[in-house]
Amino acid sequence: MTVGLKGIFPVLPTPFLASGGVDEAGMSRLVGFALDQGVDGVVFPGFASEVESLSADERARLLKIVVAGAAGRVPVVAGASAADWHEVVEHGRVAAELGVRHLMVQPPKSVGTDAAAVIEFLGKIVETLPEIEIILQNAPAPRGSDLSPQAIIEIIRGLPEVTYVKEETLPAGPAISHIIAHAPQTLRGVIGGGGARYILDEYARGATAAMPALEIAGEHVAIDRALNAGRRDEARKIYVRTLPLLVLQAVYRMRLTKHVLARRGVIDWVGVRASTPDLDATAMADIDANLVELGLLSPEVA
User: Fold this and answer.
1) How many whole angstroms separate alpha carbon 152 and alpha carbon 159?
2) Are 266 and 260 within 8 A, CB to CB?
3) Which of 64, 101, 160, 180 is the most core-located residue (most Cβ within 10 A)?
4) Is 107 helix (H, G, I), strand (E, B) or coil?
5) Which fold is adopted by the domain 7-239?
6) Helices (H), 110-198
7) Distances (CA, A) of 113 to 52, 108, 120, 121, 256
8) In this structure, what DSSP letter does residue 301 have?
9) d(Cα 184, Cα 197) in Å, to the nearest integer?
10) 18-29 average pLDDT score
11) Whether 291 contacts 263, CB under 8 Å
């Protein structure tokens, strides 16, 4: 397996204005913040971007801002998932015109979990967009298709254009081990998901990248660097310090991400379109206390 994409690739959230529209200036600041944290690439849009609530025009406009902000300093992965392969192709064409070469695609649940059906779906995409590499996103049910490791191996063997797998079923670890042990040489890497809540296990099994949310990207970069340098004890200490916040993030999702980013002065408005639990005063105090412990917020502000 020849590794290409490597390191921390946060999925950027979508900032909104109080009026409900997308915040283009806020998106530019998010990209700048990600780069300042030392990330190895950025992803947009994904589940954490509230992608299902974005129009095709909004996706295209914001992706253009992301690519411009990255300015070639780090790779951009474009999420292109859609219910129909024609829509995936349209998203892919927008990305390709911007110079993006990696598309992340979650096969729609309507395709099912049979490898042949997924190969047929993805095959139409790579036939139309031959210059694109596919990152196969395997998210857990009920939101994702929850493909088996055996099906993923069949898909990779059938479509060499699928050069990466983002594996985030639960538990992801055994699936990652199986994929790496049986994958053909065309697979360039396995990427962890799940908000980096399982990053130590994923990397121990051979994953070479992770796609967490953005709010504590600096800590995730530090974990990645420590693991790659063989400093596992250091990585575990950082990881343990992030866990209380990541446990809350698993529940509050984009609301927590945006709350933290607002606290860190990156975005102005914390509104979401996705259906997620509200943050009440007690939850926000708990989040802020975690930020203080991580050294990301002063006690006077919390």
Assistant:
1) 10
2) no
3) 180
4) coil
5) TIM Barrel (3.20.20)
6) 115-128, 149-158, 172-182
7) 21, 10, 12, 12, 32
8) T
9) 28
10) 97
11) yes
List, for residues 30-73, the tens digit of each pLDDT value: 999 999 999 999 999 999 999 999 999 999 999 999 999 999 99
Instruction: Report the candidate in 2, 98, 22 with the shortest Cα–Cα distance to residue 272.
Output: 22
Q: How many CB atoms lie within 10 A of CB 186?
A: 14
- Give the angle subtended at the CA of 55 by the CAs of 59 and 33, to the nearest 5°: 35
Instruction: Locate 81 and state its tokens.
Output: 């998932």
Pair 128, 89: CB distance under 8 Å: yes
| Whole-angstrom distance, CA of residue 244 vs CA of residue 19 | 33
**What digits encode the pLDDT tens for the residues 247-287?**
999 999 999 999 999 999 999 999 999 999 999 999 999 99
Q: How many residues does the chain have?
A: 302
Please tell me whether the peptide bond between 244 and the residue prior to it is cis, using omega within 30 degrees of 0: no
Q: Residue 171: is the preceding peptide bond cis (ω within 30°)? A: yes
